[in-house]
Amino acid sequence: MRVPILGTAAGIERYLLELGTITEFPDRAGVTRRLYTEAWQKAQIMIYELMCAAGLEAWMDEVGNVHGRLQGSSDQTILTGSHFDTVVDGGAYDGAYGIIAGIVALSELKARQVPLHRSLEVVAFSEEEGSRFPLTCWGSRALVGKIDTEAMLLCDSQGISLNDAMRSVGLNPSRAHPRRSYDYQGFVELHVEQGSQLEERRKPIGIVGTIFGQERWIVRVRGESAHAGTTRMARRHDALVAASEMVMAVYRLSQNNEAHAIATVGLLQVHHGTANCVPGHVTFTVDLRSAHDEIRRNLALQLRQDFKESGIRHGVEVVAEKHTDTAAVSMSSHLQHLTRDVAENLELDTLFLDSRAGHDAQILGREMPAGMIFVPSHQGISHHAREFTSARDLANGERVLRNVLERAANNRYSEDGGG
Ligand code: GLV
Ligand code: MN
Ligand code: MN
Questions:
Q1: Which CATH architecture has domain 5-212+329-410?
Q2: What pLDDT was estimated at residue 150?
Q3: Given ligand 1 and candidates 359, 360, 372, 387, which is best to mutate, with the most ligand atoms within 8 Å of its CB?
Q4: Which of 29, 76, 105, 240 is the right S-S partner for 402, CB 3.0 to 4.6 Å?
Q5: How far is Cα 224 from Cα 241, in angstroms, rounded to an integer?
Q6: CA 253 to CA 162: how far, in whole Å?
Q7: Are 358 and 137 in contact (CB under 8 A)?
Q8: Is 375 in contact with 198 (CB distance < 8 Å)?
């Protein structure tokens, strides 16, 4: 592994695209790296080697997060980083960018022998997306000691438990509560926007105000499987027809509330479905988000009522189980202002915006001041093979991150001032 071409746009892009070749399905477009798979482990090792090659003190923790540290004169530490898992057939930039740019930023500060009071640490989080197990932000939750041992029993779609998946990559599930090794005082996450606001307004840098809260459900609809030719309409308990009404209820709720909330059904399965049977068992997911937790709670109640009514209409049983609930979080106003100052000094225009995507900063932001810096996503495309950010935008983000980290490491640092 060669050391990155520090500070150059091509260097960040090259390492990002190289990481993007590590995928569960090399014959498909896009990147798939679900937690604790072989591809995930290969990526973990590549990141570790890159951190070592960049001259950082590197280690892997108990849940597979990879840390790269640049020691300052104090153990007080400012964190940066993002996640290296992906959705199925996702893009090469989501998560990976914050890790690669974080490594480049720290190695650049090291190469220039910039004096640091606080230490800096880049963390590659093991999981954020929830693409394998019904959980999200596993890596960042573990870092701050916010994971639940019951999670070990959760299973993926193949029936493999989190416990067994951890063992398969050499981790010991009974040690899945990483100690906080240092005094973590703040977190700055650099990420692609995943929307189109920056590109449309021609702003190279976004500064996040609030990250939307989100919840995810698994909904099980049980009707009665029956013969497709002989079962009269009045006698059917069609789980798929009922579920389709519920999908439309989610869609309408989203349409009617788009200014402040959004909801999606991303996965629907007809169990043992065959062409000549009335479907008896369907499961589907709901992802519901809002910047206001109160609004989200009310919309969730409304959806549950809609689901209940569909269930009654079609004579099917509906069980909606919420497995994730992450509150909306405001980013530190100090870090927002610091980022704007830094960007202005670099003559980069900024836009303040909210994030409708979930991020590790949402978890860490409840434990310490957190900030998020966005760079443009071409046409706002994300969670897709065509996700793209230009090398120039990637490099701009790294410069802003590097300067924010340097100032956060050296300045008086608190929620209400400094900087
Ligand atoms: C992750 O990308 C999410 O927004 O759910
Ligand atoms: Mn994502
Ligand atoms: Mn992400």
A1: 3-Layer(aba) Sandwich (3.40)
A2: 86
A3: 359
A4: 105
A5: 12
A6: 33
A7: yes
A8: yes
Per DSSP, the three-state class of 395 is: helix
Residue 226 per-residue DSSP state: E
Q: What residues are neighbours of ligand 3 (ion), with CB under 5 Å?
A: 94-95
Take atom 1 of ligand 1 and give the residue whose Cα is closest.
358
Three-state DSSP class for residue 170 = coil
Architecture label for domain 213-326: 2-Layer Sandwich (3.30)
| Domain coordinates in residue numbering, the chain | 5-212+329-410, 213-326
CA–CA dist 350, 12 (Å, integer): 21
HSE (CB half, 13 Å, CA atoms) of 100?
Answer: 33
Centre of ligand 2 from the C-alpha of residue 333, in Å:
24
**DSSP readout, 348-389?**
--EEEEEE-S--THHHHTTTS-EEEEEE--GGG--SSTT---
* Beta-bridge partners for 374: 191, 206
10-residue mean pLDDT profile of the chain (419 residues): values are 55 93 97 98 97 94 96 97 98 98 94 95 98 96 89 94 97 81 92 98 98 97 97 97 98 96 97 95 98 97 98 98 96 98 98 98 97 98 97 96 97 51
Interhelix angle 9-20/38-53, rounded to 10 degrees, is 150
CB 409 within 8 A of CB 78: yes
- pLDDT of the residue at 418: 37
H/E element, 167 = helix 162-168
pLDDT of residue 179: 64
What pTM does this model have? 0.94
Identify the bridge partners of residue 155 per DSSP, sorted by sequence position: 161
Residues annotated as binding site for Zn(2+)? 83, 94, 129, 191, 383
In the reported structure, the alpha carbon of residue 194 is separated from the centroid of ligand 2 by a whole-number distance in angstroms of 8
Distant-in-sequence, close-in-space partners of 112: CB < 8 Å, separation ≥ 6? none
Parallel, antiparallel, or unpaired: how do β-strands 417-418 and 413-414 relate? antiparallel
CA 186, 64, 137, 354 torsion-angle sign: positive
What's the CA gap between 155 and 177, in Å, rounded? 19
Which residues participate in the annotated binding site? 83, 94, 129, 191, 216, 276, 289, 383
CB 227 within 8 A of CB 277: yes
